[in-house]
Amino acid sequence: EPILLWFGMDEATASIGKTYVVYEVVSIAIDSLGECVEGLLEVTDHESFCVIKDIVFGFLNVMFIAMTLVMMPECELWVVAVIHIIFAFLSVVFMVGFATKQGWLRPFTGGMLKSIAFKNGPAVKNMINTALPLSIGQLLAYGEWEVLTIFASHMGPAEVATWAILGSLWETFEATTEGMGDASEIRVAYHLGKNRPDIARLSSYKSLLFAMLLGVTLTSLFFICGDDLPKWFTTDPTIQKMITDLIPLVGFGNITMTFGMVCWALIGAQGRYQMSTKVILVTSWCVTQPLAAILTYVYGFNLQGLAASVVIGYSIAGTVLSYILIRSDWPRLSHLVQEMNKETGEIASSDEESASSSSSSSKSSSSSDDSSDSSDSSDDDSSSDSDNDTDEDSKLVSKKKKVGKRTLS
Description:
- By secondary structure, the chain is mainly alpha-helical.
- 87% of the residues lie in helices and 0% in strands.
- The protein is built from 14 helices and no strands.
- It is globular and about 60 Å long.
- The model is unreliable at 352-409 (pLDDT under 50).
């Protein structure tokens, strides 16, 4: 409640927000648990199931909230949070139950439930070294926007509401960028672990190209819907006008963010999450935040100053990260990734297993083909022998008949 009052909201709005947060925190905790299982399914070639599940439950969630608001127009905001909790719980239960029934979690059940993972020191150390920079990066990403919201509160309550709506749009762009970054990250890390540095480099460059094409396409659609977009979120003409003025900056910011975040994911795939996170940290808190503060408190800019600060920060981050990516020593990084996998005991490869199984199956099929051929040839020989025997018998019978006729004559 004090935070909402700090943002310039009145006491009634702050009280509603305080009640809403109590329930929404539970929903976020359940979603976090589901994301852990979902991440495991995504890296084991079941990402299509995760996407379909998210679409179905997201659609049901939105439809149920809409029906609730139509049937109970006077309901409070915490009811929406309760609906979030219900569908988050149902989504996790369905995902775990369906994956268990299909046997997708069977290879990992022993490691998760029947062993003590902390005994594998190198694996735990590798996980912490990877997860800690990622967590810090996510915290900085969300913390940066919240700090900018504090700057927006200096302008007025309408600016805070506009910046919050803009944050929702920005999260939509981030979700698309994150999906592209995760996919490219998995492919590059896979090729580095298989000692294919040239293919890993080519895959990273192609991922950047596809990401930029996707960013430009989404920005184009965003510009096409620009005039009608503010009306989807609010009926206040003042807020609609401010959102319309920010659409061009947000569109260009999406392109720079896409390039920078995909570069960040690719550098992380090389095992250098700490380096990429440091770049984001420096550009965020040494470029974006100071520039936004100067434009807001010194020069008195409106929300366009905050949006311009974000675009400039992401542009600098993307430039630095792209330089690091292009200058990477891919063979050395591939060797380091392989050594890291050996230390953590992750040496087995699904490709090798499939190759061995295919080779064994081909061997067995060839041997069965040979045996079938030999059996067919033996059958042919036996049939030909039997045919020869019958021919000889018929000849003997005809000779005996001729001899009998001569003797009678």
